[in-house]
Amino acid sequence: MAYENILVETHEKVGVIQLNRPKALNALNDQLMDELGDALLKFDSDDNIGCIVITGSEKAFAAGADIGAMANYTFMDVYKSGYITRNWEQIRQVRKPVIAAVAGYALGGGCELAMMCDFIIAADTAKFGQPEVKLGTMPGAGGTQRLPRAVSKSKAMDLCLTARMMDAAEAERAGLVSRIVAADKLIEEAMRAAKTIASMSLPVIMMIKESVNRAYETTLAEGIQYERRLFHSTFATEDQKEGMAAFIEKRLPSFRNN
Ligand code: CO8
């Protein structure tokens, strides 16, 4: 697939996807989401990639779903075509870690896309919000579900009901983003985190992602049990032997993703 709305690069073991519709503040249309899904699944199946970064521009990670494209949709248009589910869910199939590196606006579907990633590194210019109510609609790609889990019911209600934006500092205090960095250091910091992750044992990294995500899907007792099973299975990997031997021998480990 030739990409017209995203730029894709590989830096060592990190796959970088840049949303690239600058004139529309990276508004997310169907074509962009098809391309994003395609690029994500390609990186996920590439043995040379250990972590993926999704980013936007200085001004916008993404200012939401493309309002112009959906303005005249009817219920039947969106229901029958599976609007959103058709090409927004592919990111959830990705088993490798995905970092959102967010500068500027992450609004509506843009905020929802950032929340679908495994964690968010924000530039000090980042602004998050779910302003759909101002358009006479509501979040439709997980905003009412992921936001309360990330920032509490009270703040999620505030953002979704009033459409106000939250700056990077508030987003970090609330737990939506993992760290804030200076805008001109965003990509550098995101790449540093991604390269660190990509230097670890990939199967173990995938198990950790799977286990943390389980915390959202199940009871604590079930989650602990699930984690225990995965923890036990790390002892079946060569990388666990290598990692522990390297510590004991006071050297750096050399993981072989096995
Ligand atoms: N869709 C389409 N075009 C957009 C969008 C958008 N979401 N956001 C900005 N643009 C366009 C503008 O129309 C403008 O285009 P043009 O130059 O041709 O007029 C260009 O980007 C620049 O925008 P502005 O001139 O408005 O820039 P400002 O700096 O003045 O303002 C804002 C920036 C505050 C971000 C403003 O553009 C804005 O409010 N945008 C809309 C934000 C919004 O409401 N987002 C929610 C969209 S609805 C949604 O996401 C539903 C999600 C449901 C799930 C996903 C379904 C697929």
Give the helices and strands, then pairings.
Elements: E1 6-11, E2 14-19, H1 30-44, E3 51-55, E4 60-62, H2 67-70, H3 75-81, H4 85-88, E5 98-102, E6 105-107, H5 109-116, E7 119-123, E8 127-129, H6 143-151, H7 153-162, E9 166-167, H8 168-174, E10 179-181, H9 186-198, H10 202-214, H11 220-234, H12 238-248
Parallel strand pairs: 2-3, 3-5, 4-6, 5-7, 6-8, 7-10
Antiparallel strand pairs: 1-2, 8-9
Helix pairs in contact: 6-7, 10-11
Keywords: Fatty acid metabolism, Lipid metabolism, Lyase
EC number: 4.2.1.17
GO biological process, one term: fatty acid beta-oxidation
Molecular structure report:
The protein is α/β, with parallel strands linked by helices and 258 residues long. It folds into two domains: 6-198, 2-enoyl-CoA Hydratase, Chain A, domain 1; 201-249, Orthogonal Bundle (Lyase 2-enoyl-coa Hydratase, Chain  A, domain 2), CATH 1.10.12.10. 45% of the residues lie in helices and 16% in strands. The strands form two sheets. The protein has a six-stranded mixed beta sheet with strand order 1-2-3-5-7-10, sandwiched between helices. A four-stranded mixed beta sheet has the order 4-6-8-9. The longest helix is centred in the first third of the chain and has 15 residues, at 30-44. The structure holds octanoyl-coenzyme A (CO8). The site of octanoyl-coenzyme A has 22 residues, from helix 2, strand 6 and helix 5. Could possibly oxidize fatty acids using specific components. Belongs to the enoyl-CoA hydratase/isomerase family. Its EC number is 4.2.1.17.
